[in-house]
Amino acid sequence: MTRSMSFSALIFLLMLLGQGPTQIQARKPHIINFRSPNLYPEGITWDPSAQHFILGSARDRTLVSVSDAGVVETLIHDPDLPENVTILGLTIDTVNNRLLAAIHAVEPLPQFDALAAYDLRTRRRVFLSLLPNDEGDLKRPTANAVAVDFKGNAYVTNSIGNYIWKVNDRGEASIFSKSPIFNAYPVDRESPFSFCGLNGIVYSSKGYLLVVQSNTGKMFKVNEDSGKGNLVILNEDMPLADGMTIRKGGVVLVNSPKKVWMLKSQDSWGEGVVYDEIALDEDRFPTSLTVGNDGRVYVVYGHVLEAFMGNWGRGSFGIEEVMSEKENREDSVWIFVLLGLGLAYFMFWRFQMGQLITNVDKKTN
């Protein structure tokens, strides 16, 4: 290698190291705009086998798939469900290759709360399990979000009754957790959606459930065997917490209509910390999160509030990737570190080559 070539390579590396974050641009978030008249999706999940999103409908007995490019197809239409029911929480049971859907009838429709399971290969319904009322229920329940463990057991939150149902892989339903901790914290009855208690729920591969509560902003850790709940000690509450997902590596993301909180824990969620917050478009009323392709997290903008207020007629909706500026900055730091290591390696290699050439010259002379 000539001295001029070595000097040019060195200048190139120094130029890279000298670039600021504005010059090393992180990629832009993935945005999917799609059309499906009067869909108003509340729940969203990602089917890794088919590589598409699945969404439900606020007033139609239909589940649709949405591709990365925004192509919409009817995946399942179930006319056996009561007319005008709302399909809320969705998740994929990867063990049994099933789609699980929490279904609720909004007043003044007759009471109906159930979990439906559909075979993703045949798209036929495997079971439709009515969720039992607790004897002490004074108000009609609301089946909301759903999570699934590695045995195919599903866990459904009751947002009005503040308890969790369990439905096994055969469709047998029971009340799983009525932990007193769920009703231990005061609720401001003047706040929006004060009626909504337990909401988003996820299952951790370490063998427990995490669930958030909308009207208190609290998070609870629930034992998968006993159903006992414990408060997760956080550095801040999450008011109006709604959707919830867990990313590879254990990072939990929770959304409200206004923002996404990113949380992590060092002790399996005895305590946790909110380490970043990402603003959302409140006017489009985001409701749910899911982890999509390559571990990217997406939120659905379903405009569901319009539907519940009777303002029908919308045809366009959105799915958008949630990205953390803080994590992007940390990625930029790693770029600088790697470039610095590359420069150090280059300088070491250049020194070694110089020594080698000097030794060869001495032997030749």
From TrEMBL:
Keywords: Membrane, Signal, Transmembrane, Transmembrane helix. This is SMP-30/Gluconolactonase/LRE-like region domain-containing protein. Residues 1-26 form the signal peptide. It comes from Cannabis sativa (Hemp). InterPro entries: 6-blade_b-propeller_TolB-like, Sensory_adhesion_molecule. One of its GO terms (cellular component) is endoplasmic reticulum. The keyword Transmembrane applies. The keyword Transmembrane helix applies.
